[in-house]
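Sample pair:
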Amino acid sequence: MASRPRKRKREAQPPVPAEPTGFSSLSKAEQVPVPESHLILAEERLAEYRRDPSRARPARDVFDRLTTPDR
């Protein structure tokens, strides 16, 4: 008779805090505050892209560059 694989015990998950009153009626932008410096940087990069879209690189190329160890 073949033995059965053991079931792994589930780790207890911390309780999820209750959602504050009115939270779900907020827009996503209001739910997740973004620092002003991040918004400014995003606006600058979007403007740069709109000036010259040919300089944009596919996300996959950026990920590859970031995950390739220095040579």
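The two ends are 54 Å apart (CA to CA).
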